[in-house]
Design brief:
- This protein has 1 helix and 29 strands.
- It is mainly beta.
Length: 316
């Protein structure tokens, strides 16, 4: 019996450690991967933004200027700067090399829940629980336009690849399309039966994905403004979605503590990855689509090999 226990202990000790990013002292709300795939940004209920080296699975910097929970993070295209949105109603622009705040964006009157940056890095689009969206000039730190139309808290915002259009999602069950140049509402997508929490877009701007408290992920044809298919499998609310650039595969995370990979063209579930002890709150692909990141309310970020569905072992 003693030998067996010793052997089991040795097996555990010799097994490769999973590639969890650990360091936050509270729930992790948001994760984003840099354009070159080498680093990640995370935001947490511990009020901090953290920068990580993905190859080394190592924390590089803790960025601590927000006064409340950090709900959204994004890299700028240059990879040297990042942005974060917080429950404190502000958005911060960070120099990721120095860890210093370059600019503070103020105007929202409630929590900033969603944040997107244009492909050229010149503008940002934010979603807030004050029921509005704002378009920002990143260089000037100035609000360019306020978008109103949602009747409840706004959870997510996207800038489409053309840079002239935006999409938002809300507790009011709707997804809305916007002309960013004029502020004009371009249309409404309806189908979800509960709060719409998350959005993702394909690189060509044709396919939109949405995740909802109704437990579904939905795919939309933006040009036709029609629903393509409904992905069902989560046992509870869906918090987050991500699409590969070609729009062929999709990641989702949910309150059922699972991280799922889907074939977006057929709606077939490819992987159901389990390992988080609490809800998965944010998901992201690596730029090459081979790995996925999941951020959880268990205070960790996990890195997954999507070909096998297994957690990536930490470097020895």
């Amino acid at each position: 019996m003693i030998r067996r226990l010793l052997f089991a202990t040795l097996l555990v000790l010799s097994a490769p450690a999973a590639a969890e990013l650990q360091g936050h002292g509270a729930m992790v709300n948001a994760v984003a991967v840099s354009p070159d795939g080498r680093r990640a940004l995370t935001g947490s209920w511990d009020y901090s933004v953290r920068l990580w080296d993905l190859a080394a699975h190592k924390e590089l910097k803790a960025l601590e200027e927000h006064t409340q929970s950090v709900n959204a993070v994004a890299f700028l295209p240059d990879g040297r700067r990042g942005m974060s949105g917080s429950f404190d109603g502000t958005i911060l622009l960070w120099d990721l090399e120095t860890g210093k705040v370059e600019r503070k964006f103020e105007g929202h009157r409630a929590s900033v829940a969603g944040l997107a940056v244009s492909r050229d890095g010149r503008r940002a689009f934010s979603a807030s629980w004050d029921r509005t969206l704002r378009l920002w000039d990143v260089a000037a730190g100035r609000s360019l336009r306020v978008f109103e139309g949602h009747t409840q808290n706004v959870n997510a915002a996207l800038i489409l690849p053309d840079g002239r259009s935006g999409v938002s999602a809300s507790y009011d069950l709707t997804i809305r399309l916007w002309n960013l140049e004029t502020g004009e509402a371009l249309g409404v997508l309806e189908g979800h039966t509960n709060s719409v929490n998350a959005l993702a877009i394909s690189a060509d701007g044709k396919i939109l994905a949405s995740g909802s408290t109704d437990g579904t992920v939905r795919l939309w044809d933006l040009a036709a403004r029609t629903e393509l298919r409904v992905l069902e499998g989560h046992r509870g609310f869906v918090t987050s979605v991500a699409l590969t650039p070609d729009g062929k595969r999709l990641l989702s995370g949910g309150g059922d503590r699972t991280f799922r990979l889907w074939d977006a063209e057929t709606g077939r579930q490819l992987r159901n990855m389990q390992g988080h002890r609490r809800p998965v709150w944010s998901v992201a692909f690596s730029p090459d689509g081979r790995r996925g990141l999941s951020a959880g309310y268990d205070e960790v970020v996990k890195i997954w090999d999507l070909a096998t569905g297994e957690e990536v072992p930490a470097p020895q």
